[in-house]
Specification:
The complex is a heterodimer. Helices cover 34% and strands 29% of the residues of chain A. Chain A is of the alpha/beta class. In chain A, a hairpin with a 2-residue loop joins strand 1 and strand 2. The two termini of chain A are 34 Å apart. By secondary structure, chain B is mostly helical. Helix content of chain B is 67%, strand content 6%. In chain B, helix 1 crosses helix 9, helix 7 packs antiparallel against helix 9 and helix 10 packs antiparallel against helix 13. Chain B is elongated, with a radius of gyration of 26 Å. Classes of the chains: A alpha/beta, B mainly alpha. Chains A and B meet through helix 3 of A and helix 1 and helix 8 of B.
Chain lengths: 310, 367
């Protein structure tokens, strides 16, 4: 349905996207996961025909989007990272304007506007100025505009950035319904792995402009099938403890985080006794310990040596 | 395209402050600099020389104040000289028994007119006084006044070639058109800056992804700015014509054509600036520099005839304000018709077409 071939974008001397190959089947929900600056937004900008690739191609149902952008524009809805609506207008006025530029009018326009408002749950607030909306409501009207013309495929570029957990949950549930109940194809970019884990059938992990891994969540985490992670909660940072644990043969990686330390270790290594022993030697107070199966975050860490939100 | 055009009006309805601020600023500046109605006469500090007797003092002031356009106010010599030295007054008049002097700061059209007016008053008075001394009749002056009010023969003078006609300079009209054009530049280019704003907020990308063509997007914005600019200029001209009795001439059609061509060229210059600047902030900081320079060079603040600097005069030749002021003053002060104004109008449109072509190209290259 949608396919990119060796997609590449170079800005002066910077390679923003490097030979990206990905595909989306009809009705699929695909995630594009990567840290800030990984090239996700540039990739979707080329897929949506907003910018021309330096080389490579994007095809929609076999037709080149690069040669003829209109093949995708009529069936595409884009939710940009920024709030791309007129904040001095009401939600209703915004939706009516964007509906009109898609050729909707009269009763059809009114009906589509009503449907879009219903999907994003803003019927009650439709006559309020967008500038008076909360961050979450602004994100929702941003999505509603993209749904207005009932696209076959929707591309969402980090649609939950900077909002509260409740609004985020609402949006994630809405995306899930659009995909599962309305059969809409979704390309969802994020640097929150839990969002991608929750929503997407398949995942592409990007870093430094390249796709570094791809597959279902299970396939990706199986990269670390021979490993497991140990989360150690500490009352404060202990630099010597990190140093001492890094020296253990079974420990593959040590990552410090705000609550303590995460160890990536060889699966089955009986390490807990040693951990407690070293902690006692370093006079470190362990508040909790948890052994986990690998997550996408761990996969990213394994592949790049960095955390997703570094 | 219609939706895009109407959207801009909807946005203006929600945020009309800038438009009304520019209208208000124009009214204020025309009122302060040009003056309303009778207040508009130019005040001339008038010093009476010691050689003039007390009884003659009132006589001269009365004679001088019978003329239109100037108001002669008696003042002490020291005060008058100080006002000129401080730049508060451009000139002052020293009235002597059989002569006069004009003290001035610099040459100006108002000064030329003042010289003519005062010379005429003195010439008339000298003639009357000479005849009066010969006829020795107390009723002589009243008889002359009666005869002048009911002349036996009226002579009308018409100039065939307007270029040779004596200029009937009107300071109010100069200020009205100058300030109106100047502030309209702000309104027009700031309204065009919505294009840069739409690029920043991402709404432009949304529109580009819709079935709307790119030329329709630009046309929606450009036509809105064009209509808004014309509306502002017409609103102010009508306001001063009907509320404050400014004489803007009889040829409404010619005025409209000049205003429309000027607005088009400013819209085009706005597009050119959009092409040169990367962000809305950059554009907003460039607009005051460009508009003030254009107004100064084009003779919006003072008559271009008062400028002698060759560089400024050369720069004024590629400035639409120069031609717009020339044409607008031609209609209102010299009663010129559309046929006589085709040249300045054609130059304004040409500047507009060139700027629009280059501007749209630059914008497209940037995107």
């Amino acid at each position: 349905m949608l396919e990119t071939t060796d997609l590449r974008k170079v800005f002066k001397s910077t390679v923003a996207v490097d030979e990206v190959n990905l595909y989306l089947n009809k009705g699929e929900s695909v995630g594009l996961l990567g840290p800030n600056g990984a090239g996700k937004s540039t990739t979707i900008s080329m897929i949506s025909s907003l910018s021309m690739p330096t080389s490579g191609d994007v095809k929609w149902n076999g037709e080149s989007v690069v040669k003829n952008p209109n093949v995708i524009r009529n069936v595409l809805g884009v939710v940009p990272q920024e709030i791309a609506v007129y904040e001095e207008l009401t939600a209703l006025e915004n939706l009516k304007f964007f509906g009109k530029i898609y050729g909707l009018k009269g009763e059809t326009l009114d009906q589509k506007v009503e449907d879009a408002l219903k999907i994003v749950g803003l019927e009650e607030k439709q006559k309020e100025l967008v500038k008076n909306y909360s961050g979450g409501m602004k994100r929702r009207i941003n999505i509603a505009v993209a749904l207005l013309h009932e696209p076959e495929i929707i591309i969402m570029d980090e649609p939950t950035v900077g909002i509260d957990p409740q609004s985020r949950n609402y949006i994630l549930e809405m995306v899930r319904q659009l995909n599962e109940e309305k059969g809409m194809t979704v390309l969802y970019t994020s640097h929150y792995m839990e969002e991608v884990e929750r929503l997407c059938d398949r995942i592409y992990i990007m870093d430094h402009g390249k796709v570094i891994a791809t597959g279902t969540q299970e396939e990706l985490t199986s990269i670390l099938s021979s490993e497991e992670s140990i989360l150690i909660e500490l009352d404060r940072p202990y630099p010597n403890l990190v140093k001492a644990l890094s020296g253990l043969e079974e420990v593959l990686q040590v990552v410090e985080h705000d609550k303590g330390i995460k160890l990536i270790v060889t699966k089955g290594s009986r390490l807990l006794g040693k951990v407690f022993q070293i902690a006692e030697q370093e006079d470190a107070q362990i508040a909790g310990i948890n052994v986990q199966v690998p997550t996408l975050e761990d996969v990213f860490l394994h592949l790049t040596g960095r955390k997703l939100r570094d | 395209m219609k939706a895009l055009f109407l959207l801009q009006w909807q946005r203006l309805r929600r945020e009309p402050v800038l438009f009304f601020a520019m209208v208000l600023m124009t009214i204020l500046f025309v009122a302060v600099v040009g003056g309303f109605g009778s207040i508009s006469s130019i005040k001339v500090p008038t010093v009476i020389d010691d050689s003039v007797s007390e009884s003659k003092k009132e006589f001269w002031l009365e004679r001088l104040n019978e003329t239109d356009g100037y108001s002669f106010e008696e003042m002490e010599e020291l005060e008058a000289r100080e006002k000129i030295a401080m730049g508060n007054k451009p000139f002052a008049l020293l009235v002597m028994e059989n002569n006069y002097q004009i003290w001035m700061l610099s040459e100006s059209p108002e000064l030329t007119m003042l010289e003519q007016v005062v010379r005429q008053v003195y010439m008339n008075e000298n003639r009357l006084a000479t005849v009066e001394s010969v006829v020795d009749d107390d009723q002589f002056r009243s008889q002359v006044e009666n005869r002048l009010s009911e002349p036996a023969l009226s002579v009308t003078t018409e100039m065939v070639d307007n270029d040779n006609a004596a200029p009937t300079y009107n300071h109010q009209i100069q200020t009205l058109f100058g300030m109106t054009l100047f502030f309209s530049i702000y309104t027009i280019i700031f309204s065009l800056s919505k294009i840069a704003e739409e690029k920043r907020t991402g709404t432009m990308n949304r529109i580009i992804l819709s079935p709307v063509k790119k030329w329709q997007v630009y046309f929606g914005h450009v036509s809105y700015s064009f209509v808004l600019g014309i509306l502002q200029i017409i609103l102010i001209v009508l306001l001063f014509k009907y509320l404050f009795n400014f004489d803007v001439g009889e040829s409404t059609g010619a005025l409209l054509v000049i205003i429309a061509s000027f607005t088009f060229s400013v819209v085009a210059i706005g597009m050119l600036l959009l092409g040169f600047t990367k962000t809305q902030e950059q554009l907003n900081s460039v607009v005051p520099i460009v508009s003030v320079s254009m107004a100064m060079i084009g003779g919006a603040f003072w008559p271009i005839e008062a400028v002698s600097n060759q560089f400024i005069l050369a720069a004024s030749k590629v400035n639409p304000i120069t031609y717009a002021m020339d044409a607008l003053k031609g209609v209102s002060m010299y009663e010129q018709g559309l046929g006589e104004l085709l040249e300045p109008i054609a130059i304004i449109v040409l500047i507009g077409v060139l700027c629009m072509g280059v501007g749209v190209n630059l914008i497209e290259r940037r995107s």
